[in-house]
Write a structure and sequence with these properties.
The complex is a heterodimer. By secondary structure, chain A is mainly alpha-helical. Chain A is 80% helix and 0% strand. The relative contact order of chain B is 0.18. Classes of the chains: A mainly alpha, B alpha+beta. Chains A and B meet through helix 4, helix 5 and helix 6 of A and helix 1, helix 2 and strand 6 of B. Bound molecules: zinc ion.
Chain lengths: 172, 125
């Protein structure tokens, strides 16, 4: 796949991630913890990480946060999702690159979800100058298990599909 | 799903459940409870909770407006200018360690417990 095609493709995927974030914000969730999210956009970011590599995934993740800031207009939410987004891409990359012998994409995604939530709680406790926020971490981690498994499972299919497209593009 | 995936999931589950139990234990059995309201990380107001207490606290800062209601031992957020109203959804709190957080407006309400008997113990010791 040449550069232009790759960037066009990544732009499309970023839009996909953005759309998932927008849909997610419309789903009413019972209160679990402040800032707790399903993190549906992560299925796109994880797939990009596997198919296109670390740097592309980082770009898509950061871009999604910026674009979502423009849609939702919530600057504080932006700080939380950016800190969560960047750290989860880094952790997922390390696990995928060095530990994929042991973990499938489901495990990688669970690592990502837990990192995302932990980073968000850390950002919240720094901004609010309150360490008690960390008492939400266990509940959020259990939620991360469910969302992480689901997102990892879906990502396996997306990756298979994406790899096919990339391969066909090389031939054609 | 690999064996390690399953191991990871079970490990996180066990650690989380144990933490929840520990946090839950730390929240029970206090003689006196206080409600502390923090704005921007600074203590804004502190109330000693009592069954006759009836207060409505209005906080207006550059981040937004919040109205907190204290009724007896129970504290809840009744109004907020924030975007997602998660703080209102957090409902009523009354136990030591419980929190209401409004991330966008940087408001935290927390319940602090004090045991007068254990205080006496430390003094006499
Ligand atoms: Zn709020």
């Amino acid at each position: 796949m040449d550069r232009t095609k790759k960037y066009t493709f990544l732009a499309l995927l970023t839009t996909g991630a953005l759309a998932l974030s927008a849909i997610e914000s419309m789903i009413p969730l019972p209160f679990i913890a402040p800032g707790a999210k399903l993190g549906l956009a992560n299925m796109v970011i994880l797939s990009v990480l596997v198919v296109f590599g670390f740097r592309s995934a980082l770009y898509v993740s950061i871009l999604r946060c910026f674009l979502f800031l423009m849609i939702a207009g919530n600057p504080i939410g932006f700080i939380y999702s950016l800190s969560g987004g960047i750290s989860s891409v880094i952790v997922m990359f390390v696990v995928f690159k060095h530990l994929s012998k042991f973990f499938s994409l489901i495990g990688v995604s669970v690592f990502g979800a837990i990192t995302y939530n932990t980073a968000q709680i850390a950002a919240a406790s720094i901004i609010l100058e309150n360490l008690n926020i960390f008492t939400y971490l266990p509940v959020m981690s259990i939620m991360s298990l469910f969302t992480g498994c689901f997102i990892g499972y879906v990502s396996i299919f997306i990756v298979r599909y994406l790899k096919d497209i990339v391969k066909n593009n090389k031939r054609g | 799903m690999t064996k390690c995936d399953k191991f990871l999931i079970i490990l996180v589950l066990i650690v989380s459940i144990i933490s929840i139990i520990i946090i839950g234990k730390a929240t029970s059995n206090y003689d006196t409870t206080y409600a502390e309201i923090y704005v921007d990380g600074n203590l804004y107001k502190k109330y000693s909770l009592d069954k006759n207490l009836n207060e409505v606290v209005t906080i207006e800062t550059k981040h937004g407006k919040n109205i907190i209601e204290i009724e007896g031992y129970n504290v809840r957020m009744i109004e907020s200018s924030c975007i997602n109203k998660l703080c209102i959804k957090q409902g009523t709190i009354h136990k030591q360690g419980q929190l209401i957080v409004c991330l966008p407006n940087k408001v935290v309400v927390q319940i602090i417990g004090k045991n007068s008997s254990s205080d006496l113990d430390t003094i006499s010791y």
